């Protein structure tokens, strides 16, 4: 198995998740402003690997401020595309770190791994995340009704968004 490369932006470093990141990532994930969109993490998260998923810790200076991951959503060459997800420590919201992290990862997926299409699927009520994704070039595809169940058992609608390589805003 190949180790994922570190990816750098002007302010952020995306570093493959390592055991010394686990406690901080878990603490961020459990923050009320994050867990409302991500549900409760499994007991072994993020220590347990997730097959087919490449996971990164997001650093600003020496501070671990978030998490971003990607996965190959379809490997058939005629339909091949990747999906991604992320969360940030709420202390770093609205400062451009999410947008920069997405741009850095999208550039890697498009330029280095030759994906022509990327997808992301926030809850329709997550207007801050949706605005961030749109600012990078993701477009609304449509609402996926009752797409996921939240941590309280309520079904939530998701917004499928995609980004074509040729539309990527650098």
From TrEMBL:
Transmembrane segments: none annotated. It is an enzyme of class 2 (transferase). Keywords: Acyltransferase, Transferase. Residues 12-166 form the N-acetyltransferase domain. Its EC number is 2.3.-.-. It comes from the Bacteria. SUPFAM superfamilies: Acyl-CoA N-acyltransferases (Nat). CDD domains: NAT_SF. GO terms for molecular function: acyltransferase activity. Belongs to the acetyltransferase family. RimJ subfamily. This is GNAT family N-acetyltransferase. It comes from Rhodococcus baikonurensis.
